[in-house]
Amino acid sequence: MIRFYFHPTPNPAKVALLLEETGLAYEVVPVDTSKGEQHDPAFRAINPNGKVPAIVDTDGPGGREARVFDSTAILLYLAEKAGRFTGDPQDRPELLSWLMFIASGLGPYSGQAVHFQHAAPAGLDYAVNRYRREAERHYQVLDDHMAGRDYIVGDDYTIADISAWGWLERASRVLKGAEPPLAGFPNLDRWFKVIDARPAAARARAVGRDIAFKTTRDEEALRALFPSNYPPA
């Protein structure tokens, strides 16, 4: 059984999609980040970085319980456990390259673009421009790569596609004001519609809908989400 520590944000969404694609048995363990549950010692024992997603596999290697944190590590672990979505072995270098491109570029810059456009105080025009333009640049790199291709790596659907879907599913927030959000990236738009039409994508999007996560951005939420903005107690 996979215990899936979840909050409805892009990186957990990737893991939800892979779990739904593989059919591995899992249970959702909510982590309400607006209440600060990601900082609880019990969760920090699973992910010392205090971020979602994380998983605990009760039937890990050698039958031992295994924890895995960071969405890219989780995708690799679960795909290898299921024996699916890792692509052709000869494409392994390409798979790892695009996974790291998403993990170190597309994802973080998209996240910062969302933060400075939607959550940061007004007047930070340099930061807004910096992260929005870098997010767009990463979109363009992937859009150029997808010209004439059906999938990011090789000829098959892999965890590279699953990883990218998690962030591109939120393109409307990353590219604030762009309607439709992927209009400027036609190859990505075409690719995204194919991935998003998979039955597992609809199921992944429904994960956690029955959980009442906190949505109010009050002082408690701001301190929980952005602790580095506040002096230590």
SSE blueprint:
Blueprint: E1 2-6, H1 10-22, E2 26-30, H2 41-44, E3 54-57, E4 66-69, H3 71-82, H4 92-118, H5 125-145, H6 159-168, H7 171-174, H8 186-196, H9 199-206, H10 219-225
Helix pairs in contact: 1-3, 1-6, 1-9, 4-5, 4-6
List keywords for this structure.
globular, Glutathione S-transferase Yfyf (Class Pi), Chain A, domain 2, 10 helices, Glutathione-S-Trfase_C_sf, 233 residues, alpha+beta, single chain, Glutathione S-transferase, Glutaredoxin
**CATH C-level of the largest domain:** Alpha Beta
Q: Count the domains.
A: 2
Mean pLDDT: 96
| Major sheet | 4 strands, mixed
What structural class results from the helix and strand content?
Answer: alpha+beta
Low-confidence sequence ranges: none
Number of strands: 4
InterPro entries: Glutathione-S-Trfase_C-like, Glutathione-S-Trfase_C_sf, Glutathione_S-Trfase, Glutathione_S-Trfase_N, Thioredoxin-like_sf
Domain GST N-terminal: 1-86
Pfam family, one: GST_C_2
Organism: Tistrella bauzanensis
